[in-house]
Amino acid sequence: MPIDKHGVAAELESNVETIEAYLEDDTGIVERYQDAFQRLPKEWTSEEIREALEDASYPGAYPTDEFNDVSSIVVPHAESDGWENHENVNEWAREILRDVPVMAVDGSQLPPTTEFNVPLAYVQSACAVNYHHADGRLDRDVEGRLLTPDEITRESQEGDYRFVDSQLVGHHRFEHEGALLIEQLVELAEARDAGDVAHTPVVFYDGPLIASFANPLKPETRERYISTLSRVIAASQHHEIPLVGYVAGSSATELVKMTRLLLRDEFETDRVIPDAHVLTELMSPWGDTTVPFISKRDGSVDALQATYEGERYEFRDDILFSYLNVPPGAGLDRIEFPGWLCRSDGPDGYDSMYEYTVEIVRAEAGVGRGYPEIIQQADSDAVLDHQDRQQFHRIVQRWAESNDVPVEWNVKALSKELRRR
């Protein structure tokens, strides 16, 4: 049955005030925060801010030492000032990326089968490595994993039956992506150490390194996400391969929260707004970033710790972030990265590994017209659609028939399938 158009229109009409409130003009608040953001490095040192915030468990953010050396939290990208079109972006980006290997991993999934009398699911992760060679070398690989009934079902609270939990597929996919990313990161580190690549590789993680999204989950589920991210970050530091968590169109509020706590008299009664709303107009049209800040968002940062290759790594106060303006995407993007990038010397021409990494990220996003091209490549390779689901069903059915496994269509699903043919 098609969508009830009249019902949708009626629901929109009855909720017009709620929707308008969400879109409430916050220009006045934005302007006052812009003024405060501009004053911060002129009126405070990093040490003074930390001291003022020491009683707050999670004050949003802490400034890094770099904060003491700047007069503005916005770092301009001067090269872009004279650009007139996207070809100027491409020309600059191609030169920056020449012979720099960049890698990304993304995943997709087929949900548990309800068409058969046995639940099965499938997760798939794709890896793409663009070496930016003159000959156009792009390595691509896809790895998949079947999820068996015991991996996608839970026992009821009473313990008298098991039921399919579709969320478990997403948990397995997240772990699968993380494992593949580490595997490929290690290969890049080995290639670098052997002299097989000319420049330090950069690894893109599609999403945040700060797992606030897992906070509402059950403790054992939250731990699975935290553990995966912790190992990915530890692998980056252990092998000294830059890692960036890329968040498009960020709505994070760490800098606003930090500023509210520092300037209570000015902002305590105002509602919280995203950092990006404040920063956008402080940045030039293309390529500007902010100085790095340490995330103090919540306990999910403190929980990031792992043992990797026999070494213990803890990332409390060591997951940093910056904002990046790379149109035409909506709003500002955000990059999250481990603190070792700021503490390590960069390649020739760069003061730190962080500075080098930001330049590579900026160039990848430029080539991708607002979103890193390498992440787009991994995403397109990983995606599983309705046709893939149907093919999965046929493979399962043929396998069951050839091995005399009693996998059968359930009556309702078979009826639907026959009607659609």
Characterize the structure shown.
With 421 residues, the protein is an alpha+beta fold. The chain contains 17 helices and 15 strands. It has a nine-stranded mixed beta sheet with strand order 1-11-14-15-9-8-3-4-5, sandwiched between helices. A two-stranded antiparallel sheet has the order 2-10. A two-stranded antiparallel ribbon has the order 6-7. Helix 7 packs parallel to helix 8. The chain is globular, with a radius of gyration of 24 Å.
Report the end-to-end length measured between terminal Cα atoms.
Answer: 18 Å
Share of helical residues? 40-55%
Give the tally of β-strands: 15
Strand fraction equals 15-25%
Q: Which strand order do you get reading across the main beta sheet?
A: 1-11-14-15-9-8-3-4-5
The structural class is alpha+beta
| Overall average pLDDT | 90
Given the structure, what is the number of helices?
17
**CA gyration radius, whole angstroms:** 24 Å
> Which shape, going by the Cα principal axes?
globular
